[in-house]
């Protein structure tokens, strides 16, 4: 769990070319779902390539508290002996999801239709994030929730003893909300229908089908209509977790802005609901290619090659692309600072309710580092200074947000003066090998502030 330990100040100094191969960790979204669905199956699910970041480890602990047997065999290989749909035991203690919105919201969904009472908490970041977006639809199944003002954690959920199926249109583009409703629908009789107006990452749908649930997806005028048949017996699976495109974003973006760089990032999952950043970077003129494109476990995968790109241009990022790159806007804003012209990002309100208000956190640090940022509730614009022209020389508050910390570490690799963050400890939630991986490529990262 981040936010409970001692802060780790970090500084990134301007560095020479980044070169080599960057093996980033497993996908965080798929790792959480592997553990949760494994816990809801009957029998043993085998997982390789699990992300062993703090967010996922907190989910593993939670699944154990609900009665599943979760075993770490080392080297990213894990097994989960599940208790079956509706088989969750009532945990003896509070479930602490640390820094993880995905963890808490999916687990709330998974327990919501079992007759158990569970109290959830997290770190200061997670306890500030809105949970009503999940507990509102769960109430339709018959689940009760009592939390702090504004629907904040700590919060206690009383699972529905006699759940009814639900038809729900998700009001915000959120894969976490969609997934919570689908996971709750697993233990309701009949058909649960979730409608999303904008497509969000579809790992839950794909994995539920993989675990043997009957689930269909239809594109209609209303949006994407997902229909799940309740009370299936989920079959245990052998899951190979693809490498995380959201983590790949950091070495890729670093290579684009550090002169002379050439970095290979192999085996990256390029599910179209996740790959929006790479499309955007190519539109900006990035020298970013997909090598060895192939399919693995039903997901498109490729090796990414990113080279220093001297002619990056600011672009308008279409709002309909936002969901497919939502976690990548912080690092995109760093690349935009090194481009010529304005990068205009619209339809990005959701950035304000992540681990931090990411528009605010990035804007504060970018402005202090000499970059012009304009912002509104749902949009922000970066006026790029071009390569070699970004001053830097600042210490930025990472606000318990791993993506803010990593984005500013990437920025400091190409600014005129070093860039520091007050606390890099949240990086361990999603990318525990970040410092070593970047150092191996040639980055100059140290654990102190200048
Ligand atoms: O479902 C998921 O695994 C995730 C969904 C997204 O959150 P929202 O559903 O809040 O958009 C994303 O930001 C998060 O990192 C992971
Ligand atoms: C938003 C993120 O995660 P979560 O919502 O799971 O905390 C993220 O990883 O960028």
Automatic annotation (TrEMBL):
<feature type="binding site">
    <location>
        <position position="174"/>
    </location>
    <ligand>
        <name>3-phosphoshikimate</name>
    </ligand>
</feature>
<dbReference type="InterPro" id="IPR036968">
    <property type="entry name" value="Enolpyruvate_Tfrase_sf"/>
</dbReference>
<feature type="binding site">
    <location>
        <position position="358"/>
    </location>
    <ligand>
        <name>phosphoenolpyruvate</name>
    </ligand>
</feature>
<dbReference type="InterPro" id="IPR001986">
    <property type="entry name" value="Enolpyruvate_Tfrase_dom"/>
</dbReference>
<keyword id="KW-0057">Aromatic amino acid biosynthesis</keyword>
<feature type="binding site">
    <location>
        <position position="354"/>
    </location>
    <ligand>
        <name>3-phosphoshikimate</name>
    </ligand>
</feature>
<dbReference type="GO" id="GO:0008652">
    <property type="term" value="P:amino acid biosynthetic process"/>
</dbReference>
<comment type="pathway">
    <text>Metabolic intermediate biosynthesis; chorismate biosynthesis; chorismate from D-erythrose 4-phosphate and phosphoenolpyruvate: step 6/7.</text>
</comment>
<dbReference type="GO" id="GO:0003866">
    <property type="term" value="F:3-phosphoshikimate 1-carboxyvinyltransferase activity"/>
</dbReference>
<dbReference type="InterPro" id="IPR006264">
    <property type="entry name" value="EPSP_synthase"/>
</dbReference>
<feature type="domain" description="Enolpyruvate transferase">
    <location>
        <begin position="15"/>
        <end position="436"/>
    </location>
</feature>
<feature type="binding site">
    <location>
        <position position="327"/>
    </location>
    <ligand>
        <name>3-phosphoshikimate</name>
    </ligand>
</feature>
<comment type="subunit">
    <text>Monomer.</text>
</comment>
<dbReference type="Pfam" id="PF00275">
    <property type="entry name" value="EPSP_synthase"/>
</dbReference>
<dbReference type="GO" id="GO:0009423">
    <property type="term" value="P:chorismate biosynthetic process"/>
</dbReference>
<feature type="binding site">
    <location>
        <position position="28"/>
    </location>
    <ligand>
        <name>phosphoenolpyruvate</name>
    </ligand>
</feature>
<feature type="region of interest" description="Disordered">
    <location>
        <begin position="1"/>
        <end position="24"/>
    </location>
</feature>
<dbReference type="GO" id="GO:0009073">
    <property type="term" value="P:aromatic amino acid family biosynthetic process"/>
</dbReference>
<dbReference type="InterPro" id="IPR023193">
    <property type="entry name" value="EPSP_synthase_CS"/>
</dbReference>
<comment type="function">
    <text>Catalyzes the transfer of the enolpyruvyl moiety of phosphoenolpyruvate (PEP) to the 5-hydroxyl of shikimate-3-phosphate (S3P) to produce enolpyruvyl shikimate-3-phosphate and inorganic phosphate.</text>
</comment>
<protein>
    <recommendedName>
        <fullName>3-phosphoshikimate 1-carboxyvinyltransferase</fullName>
        <ecNumber>2.5.1.19</ecNumber>
    </recommendedName>
</protein>
<comment type="similarity">
    <text>Belongs to the EPSP synthase family.</text>
</comment>
<feature type="binding site">
    <location>
        <position position="33"/>
    </location>
    <ligand>
        <name>3-phosphoshikimate</name>
    </ligand>
</feature>
<feature type="binding site">
    <location>
        <position position="101"/>
    </location>
    <ligand>
        <name>phosphoenolpyruvate</name>
    </ligand>
</feature>
<dbReference type="GO" id="GO:0005737">
    <property type="term" value="C:cytoplasm"/>
</dbReference>
<keyword id="KW-0808">Transferase</keyword>
<feature type="binding site">
    <location>
        <position position="129"/>
    </location>
    <ligand>
        <name>phosphoenolpyruvate</name>
    </ligand>
</feature>
<dbReference type="InterPro" id="IPR013792">
    <property type="entry name" value="RNA3'P_cycl/enolpyr_Trfase_a/b"/>
</dbReference>
<feature type="binding site">
    <location>
        <position position="403"/>
    </location>
    <ligand>
        <name>phosphoenolpyruvate</name>
    </ligand>
</feature>
<feature type="binding site">
    <location>
        <position position="176"/>
    </location>
    <ligand>
        <name>3-phosphoshikimate</name>
    </ligand>
</feature>
<keyword id="KW-0963">Cytoplasm</keyword>
<feature type="active site" description="Proton acceptor">
    <location>
        <position position="327"/>
    </location>
</feature>
<feature type="binding site">
    <location>
        <position position="29"/>
    </location>
    <ligand>
        <name>3-phosphoshikimate</name>
    </ligand>
</feature>
<keyword id="KW-0028">Amino-acid biosynthesis</keyword>
<feature type="binding site">
    <location>
        <position position="176"/>
    </location>
    <ligand>
        <name>phosphoenolpyruvate</name>
    </ligand>
</feature>
<feature type="binding site">
    <location>
        <position position="28"/>
    </location>
    <ligand>
        <name>3-phosphoshikimate</name>
    </ligand>
</feature>
